[in-house]
User: Fold this.
Amino acid sequence: MKRLIFDEDHEMFRDSVRRFMQAEIGPQVERWREAGICDKDAFRKAGEQGLLCMWADEKYGGLGIEDFRFEQIVIEETMRHGDLGFFITLHSRLVGPYIGHLASEPLKGRLLPKCISGETILGIAMTEPGAGSDLAGIKSRAVRDGDDWIINGSKTYISNGINGGAFVVAARSVPDKPHGIGLFVVEEDMEGFSRGRNLAKMGLKSQDTAELFFENVRVPAENVLGDPQRGFYSLMRFLAEERLISACQAVAHGQIAFDLTMDYILERKAFGRPIGAFQNSRFKMAEMRTALDVTQTFIDQLVMLHNAGELSADLAAEAKYYATEVEARVMDECVQLHGGAGYMSEYRISHMFTDARVSRIYAGSTEIMKEIIARSIGLDERKLTKG
Ligand SMILES: Cc1cc2nc3c(=O)[nH]c(=O)nc-3n(C[C@H](O)[C@H](O)[C@H](O)COP(=O)(O)OP(=O)(O)OC[C@H]3O[C@@H](n4cnc5c(N)ncnc54)[C@H](O)[C@@H]3O)c2cc1C
Assistant:
C-alpha cells in the first residue's frame, strides 16, 4: 500500500538509514543475540550517522528535527535490517525527551551532547519488583538532604540496564501520596548505584534487561527532572508518544513477518504445489495483508496528529493495543505457514515470534490500554461503581 505521509526528504532519509542498518547493524545481530547484549559502539555509530535524539536543539549538537516521521523511519528500518533489540528509539525518544524538556540547563549541557553522539546510553527505570502496571506502588524512596536527594530502592526489567550510562529513575518523594513521585537522573559513576545481572529472557535476545540498585545514591539538584513531587504527571505526559512508538514498532515487525512468509510459501512445496497455492494460505495472507494495511493507516494518521500536537492518550492506547494484537496474530500465523521451519532458530520468523510476545506486556499492557480506552468513552470503573 502506498503510504501518503512521506515526501521526498523522508524517502532520502529512509535510504540512508537503510544503508546504515544493512552495513553496520544487520551483520552484528546474530552475535548480539548470542551475547544477550548489543555493542555499545553501535550507539556511537548511530550517533555519527545523526540518528540519535534527532529532536535535540542544534546548540547541543542535535538536528532540531521535531517531525516524528523521521523517527518512524528509524524504527521501521531498524526493525527490517537491524533487530528489535537494537532499540535506539528507546534511548532517543522514550528517555531523551525527559532530559530535553525537564532537565536543568547544566545537566542538558553536560548530558545531551553525549546522548546525541551515543557516548552515553539512556534508560528509564520505573518498574520495581512490586510495581509495574501500577506505578502508584513505587517503593524506591527519594529523601531531600539540603539541595540534594538521597535515593534508595531497586528497579527491575530495565532495558539498556547493562549498557546504560544514565537512567531516569522514578522514586517516591512524598511518602503518603500515591502519585507523590519524583524523577531523578542517576549516572553510572554515582556512589551507591549498582546493576544486577543481565536477565535471561524468552525473546528480545540482543537487548540487555537488568535490575538496578540504589543504596544511598546522592543525586544533586542539577539532576532532578522538573518538580520532584510531580514526576508522575511528567511520566503521563510522555507516555502517549511511548505508546505510539510501540505501535509503530509492532506494525513494522508484522510487515516484515508477512514479507518473509510470502517468500517462503511461494518457494516451499507440498503435494506438488507451492504452499501459497492452498486456499488456507491464500486466505490467511489476505487476512494479514488487510489487518496490516488497516493498522498501518491508523498509525500513520496518529503520527500526523502527533506532529500537529494532537495525539491524545486514548488514541495512542488504541494504537498500541491494536497494533500489538495484530502483530501477535500475524507472528502466530506466519510461524504456522512456515511449518516446522517456523519453529527452528535458524529461521528469522521463529525469533520474531518470541520477540513479539513482549509487545503486549511492556510500555503498558494490553489490559491497561483497554482501561484507558474504556475510561475515555465514559466507562470509568471508579465512577460507575461509586456510591
Ligand atoms: C523486556 C522488557 C523490558 C522492559 N523495559 C522496561 C524499562 O526499560 N523500564 C521500566 O521501567 N520497565 C520496563 N519493563 C517493565 C514493563 O513495563 C512491565 O513489565 C509492565 O508494565 C507490566 O508490569 P508487571 O510486569 O509488573 O505486570 P503486572 O502489573 O503485575 O501485571 C500482570 C498482569 O495483570 C494485568 N493487570 C494489571 N493491572 C490490571 C488492571 N488494572 N486491569 C486488568 N489487568 C491488569 C496486566 O495487564 C498483566 O496481564 C520491561 C519489561 C520487559 C518484559
Summary: The chain has twelve helices and ten strands. The mean pLDDT is 96. The beta strands are 122-125, 141-145, 148-159, 166-172, 181-187, 193-198, 209-219, 224-225, 269-270, 273-274. Residues 231-267 form the longest helix (37 residues).
